[in-house]
Amino acid sequence: MNIADVIHAKADGPQGQIFTIGPGDNVTTLLAALAEHNVGALVVTEGSADDLQVVGIVSERDIVRRLARDGAEILDRPVSEIMTTSVLTCTPADAVDAIAETMTDRRIRHMPVLADGKLAGLVSIGDVVRSRIRQLEHDRGQLEQYISS
Amino acid sequence: MNIADVIHAKADGPQGQIFTIGPGDNVTTLLAALAEHNVGALVVTEGSADDLQVVGIVSERDIVRRLARDGAEILDRPVSEIMTTSVLTCTPADAVDAIAETMTDRRIRHMPVLADGKLAGLVSIGDVVRSRIRQLEHDRGQLEQYISS
């Protein structure tokens, strides 16, 4: 099972769209966008719709940590000041178990998916571990069936 | 494998302590506590140390959603105004797979663990699914060994 399967499973559900924000948008706009789409993170992108460049990722965690440090003044600051710029990405061909391990080990909640360098999706640790659990349950079922037959 | 195993695994690591906050503490204090302990949620408790009563749970998500709605004024408001009061809890005896399913289905990230009605821990969806994956990998290994022998 690979990341393409995870993206396709999401594409059929309510979390199928990729939501993005610009680095120059402010944190108040970001808060509204997270609430509107009911998500915990957005990919920060620059460029035209058919050639989006990923410049960062910004999450609830980034907001609350900066709020703790700098207070309410961050609400007027641009997303570029609070986003994470060292973004680990994956591709549709990556194996789910490898990505699940990377996200768990490095405590990464969200990872953009790039296909031929273009933004193709965003997977969360939740998406990835759910796929991993389904795969393992399937494997166990197959082995049990093999033993009993 | 049950929730007691998850708590014991956490107790040996950096996330072993249970961090709590009072319903009367304000959101600025909450932000500082989340940053200090490097966690995403705290259990809201009342009462003396040997008889803590769980009155709610409060997370990064609660903060950013209320910030989006009400703006910076929430920073001075008490935790009781933004916390989630309908808290699903579990016990050390609960099976990990059942709790993993409940948390996934109901999109609950954190669940307090009560032992004899007393707060005994806090498990995250991450803790629970990691245990579930380890269990399934172990099961698969056993079955494969059985088949090859």
What do you see in this structure?
The structure is a homodimer of 149-residue chains. Chain A has 149 residues and is of the alpha+beta class. Helix content of chain A is 44%, strand content 19%. Chain A has five helices and five strands, in the order αβαββααββα. In chain A, the strands form two sheets. Chain A has a three-stranded mixed β-sheet. Chain A has a two-stranded antiparallel sheet with strand order 4-5. The two termini of chain A are 26 Å apart.
Q: What is the gist of this entry?
A:
The structure is a homodimer of 149-residue chains. With 149 residues, chain A is α+β, with helices and mostly antiparallel strands. The first copy, chain A, contains five helices and five strands, in the order αβαββααββα.
Structural features:
149 residues, 5 strands, alpha+beta, 44% helix, 5 helices, homodimer, 19% strand
